[in-house]
Design a protein that fits this description.
Blueprint: E1 3-8, E2 26-32, H1 41-44, E3 50-52, H2 55-58, E4 66-69, H3 77-86, E5 90-93, H4 101-114, E6 118-120, H5 130-138, E7 145-153, H6 164-167, H7 169-185, E8 190-198, E9 212-219, E10 224-230, E11 244-249, E12 252-257, E13 262-267, E14 270-273, H8 284-292, H9 302-322, H10 331-336
Helix pairs in contact: 3-4, 7-9
């Protein structure tokens, strides 16, 4: 029997309806806070899928066993997840799943208290080439990890909210991928983070959305890491996410560049060339479904998974304390003067 999934919201187009077509373990049974036209053609033709006006109304549907949250206002998502769990539903939530660290604690506590499994859509390091990188690092191929560089660059577009409470903003919505590269792929926990950000480059004259940020991190093993995050990826790169990851260890170096298009492993004096990539058998969502059915275990504990969210929230706090860099009205004029 398949598990019934209710979809709530489609903020940023990150709902999971595409993964549920002919899924062996799950199927869409209800939606709320989104238009039925956002479902796949096959799902739109399925008369058993019920459409509700609100999340609360959808939770009255006993067929809904799991709620996939892509909340219209991300700042409300933690409360909505807790409401779902308190009504006996498992929850799979878009990132960032919370926008306050205290809400992360509440999510973990509620999951434990209710027995409902909460998970964030945290599959970054479990798709190729990052899964292969994770496995090589865990095998000890490059020795102890000493330094990590991570880049996450998305394009700018008119649909990006200027209000970061809507989708989590630059560091929370974008930068969490770079943090996952470090913790989940390179396998080292981040002990401390500082950050700066700027609104320079925002296409709206009065826009409040930061366009670029830099993070510097101390790792729990004594190593260091840095990350650059931005909404400045030009279309000419040929990839939506212009991602880079370089991990330097005591025995070698491993990297993925150009959105995962190029990889390389160097051990001592030997350039091993591109990584051998095999597609993972299951996506992160697949593993989540199988864990609910008792057929598999998740590769991360909930605390490990959500520590990346804690890091980006701390990075945002650091950036706010440092004061966002303000663009000058005419930077070239300032330089001439």
């Amino acid at each position: 029997m398949k598990l019934g999934v209710g979809l709530y919201g489609n903020n940023g187009g990150h709902q999971i309806q595409g993964e549920l077509n002919d899924h062996p373990d799950a199927q869409v049974v209800a939606i709320a806070g989104m238009d039925i036209q956002q479902l796949t053609p096959e799902q739109q033709a399925d008369s058993s899928i019920r459409v509700y006006d609100t999340l609360e109304a959808m939770l009255t549907d006993e067929r809904v066993q799991i709620v996939s949250l892509c909340s219209p206002i991300r700042a409300r998502q933690a409360d909505e997840a807790i409401m779902c769990m308190n009504q006996g539903r498992h929850v799979y939530a878009e990132k960032p799943c919370a926008m306050k660290e205290s809400d992360i604690d509440r999510l973990i506590e509620t999951s434990r208290a209710t027995g409902c499994q909460f998970r964030e859509m945290a599959g970054t390091a479990f798709q190729q080439p990052y899964l292969a990188i994770r496995q090589l690092v865990r095998s000890g191929a490059i020795g102890d990890v000493v330094q990590v560089f991570a880049q996450k660059s998305y394009p700018s577009h008119d649909g990006r909210p200027q209000d970061e409470t809507i989708d989590g903003g630059l560091i929370g919505q974008n930068g969490i991928h770079a943090v996952r590269f470090i913790e989940h792929a390179a396998g080292v926990k981040i002990k401390h983070v500082t950050a700066v950000e700027t609104r320079l480059g925002n296409p709206r004259a009065e826009g409040m959305l930061p366009m670029a940020a830099s993070l510097v991190m101390e790792l729990a093993n004594g190593g260091v890491a840095s990350s650059i995050i931005n909404y400045l990826n030009p279309q000419g790169t040929g990839c939506w996410g212009n991602d880079h990851l370089r991990i330097f260890g005591t025995e070698g170096m491993i990297e993925s560049t150009d959105g995962g298009a190029r990889t390389r492993l160097v051990i001592g004096n030997a350039d091993k060339g591109p990584l051998e990539l095999e597609e993972p058998v299951y996506s992160y969502f697949d593993l989540y479904m199988k864990s609910l059915l008792g057929h598999a275990e998740m590769p991360l504990t909930l605390e490990e998974e959500l520590h990346c969210t804690r890091v980006v929230l701390r990075a945002k706090t650091s950036a706010q304390a440092a004061c966002t860099v303000q663009p000058t009205v005419n930077p070239m004029k300032s330089l001439r003067e």
